[in-house]
Design brief:
By secondary structure, the chain is mostly helical. The protein has 20 helices and no strands. Among the domains are: about 60 residues, no CATH class; about 110 residues, no CATH class; about 90 residues, no CATH class. Helix 6 packs parallel to helix 8 and helix 10 runs antiparallel to helix 11.
Length: about 425
């Protein structure tokens, strides 16, 4: 007698739940998603057929939630195997160990309905969250190469805690875990220039946000993921992720600052793709949102955006659009409005002001701003800020024999700066 093939666990769960055909299950999942408040999720029979194949793909977060809720079993019990760590480059062995180990635990924890032999106390959620909050503050002052391993190790702890918690404690741990992975992804993308690693880490953040059922945090993660194709000039990919980010944001009470930030993210992606007119329209819309305000407060974890940051976004777009006087005005206003603790953003603004002056034919002023950026980078490293300074230096090629440019080269290529840049 031939042995059954395919994902027999899912087939058995389907039949046991009363769904005799794959089409019946597909229809039930689509309808159940609506009842769970997951709008726009449509599951077809072709997708169910893939899930019941010999090598079923790991479903997307929303599909996982509906499958587990409808069939009453964990993803592993339904025959799915988490693919964490099987693809994509990792920057070093330490990151591979931390990310794949934590991700495997996260995959096991998500959707698990098994009884807990020795559950964690209710204080575990607040304790884990407290460390996440501390890492959030430390990001603005601690060297990224130093903070990054600690953040990933904390994520690994969260993955281990998650299956040992229930109810409110579980949601607290999951939300803090999502924020932790989000921070790790931000460091990888903005500070360490590792977009491939950032994508994998942000995907884990999205998984954890789904476990916490925190749609606003999910929106923030997806918007950060839009930066990756956006900065690479892949407009279609960035647009698709921004549509998803806005969809998630509509499911929660979003503050004016959060909605304005979504506009700013999309504007930066459009700018990187050469669509400065569209970007300026988005920034104008963000300014209107901030002016009108909102009754909803911003989440505590959203510490990367402000009116000053929006002005910096605007100045960069105006710079690339060739609107130099307007760019100078916006960037100067942003620099004045930045508060203590925003030193990383300060390096970016200095770099953009240097670029404005270089484009205006003022090499001495450009070198002065670039020098200020290097002063700050010596204290607080930020790969995005250094990229701005390098772009300015390339734009000064026609003036490379002038004293101010040579002095800038001495700063840009001294022992400390060169070693820091090459080591990262």
């Amino acid at each position: 007698m031939p042995r059954p093939t395919g994902n027999v666990r899912l087939k058995a769960a389907r039949v046991a739940a009363g769904f005799n055909s794959q089409q019946d299950l597909a229809d039930a999942l689509t309808e159940h998603a609506k009842r769970m408040g997951i709008r726009g999720l449509s599951i077809g029979v072709r997708q169910v057929r893939r899930w019941e194949s010999d090598n079923p793909p790991w479903p997307q977060p929303d599909c996982q939630r509906v499958l587990v809720h409808l069939l009453g079993q964990s993803m592993e019990s339904l025959g799915f195997t988490p693919p964490w760590g099987s693809e994509g480059p990792t920057p070093d062995p330490t990151r591979r160990m931390l990310v794949t180990g934590g991700a495997a635990a996260l995959g096991l924890a998500m959707g698990s309905q098994r009884a807990i032999a020795a559950p964690q106390p209710t204080t575990a959620g607040a304790d884990f969250e407290a460390v996440t909050r501390s890492h959030r503050r430390l990001y603005w002052s601690v060297a990224p190469s130093t903070l990054h391993p600690a953040v990933l190790a904390h994520a690994t702890l969260g993955c281990a805690l998650l299956p040992e918690t229930t109810d409110v404690t579980r949601r607290t741990v999951a939300a803090a875990l999502a924020e932790t992975y989000l921070l790790a992804g931000r460091i990888e993308f903005f500070d360490l220039s590792q977009p491939a690693s950032a994508h994998d880490t942000l995907l884990l953040a999205l998984q954890a946000a789904g476990e916490a059922d925190d749609t606003l945090l999910g929106s923030a993660v997806i918007a950060h993921m839009a930066f990756i194709p956006g900065w690479a000039g892949e407009r279609e990919g960035a647009q698709e992720r921004m549509i998803a980010a806005r969809t998630y944001a509509r499911r929660a009470p979003a503050s004016a600052e959060f909605l304005a930030w979504l506009d700013a993210v999309e504007a930066e992606c459009e700018t990187r793709c050469g669509n400065t007119r569209t970007a300026l329209h988005l920034i104008g819309h963000a300014e209107d949102i901030l002016r009108d305000g909102s009754e909803h407060p911003s989440p505590e974890w959203m510490d990367w955006f402000s009116r000053a940051r929006l002005a910096a976004f605007k100045g960069n777009t105006e710079l690339l659009a060739g609107h130099l006087p307007q760019a100078r005005e916006a960037l100067s206003a942003a620099l004045e409005a930045l508060s203590p603790g925003e030193e990383k953003q300060r390096t970016v603004v200095y770099g953009d002001l240097a670029a404005v002056e270089a484009a205006s034919g003022n090499p001495e002023k450009a070198c002065e701003y670039a020098g200020l950026a290097l002063d700050q980078l010596a204290i607080t490293w930020y790969a995005t800020g250094m990229d701005r300074v390098r772009e300015v230096r390339r734009s000064l090629t026609a003036h490379q024999h002038e004293r101010c440019v040579r002095d800038l080269d001495d700063r840009l290529y001294d022992w400390s700066t060169t070693l820091s840049a090459l080591s990262r």
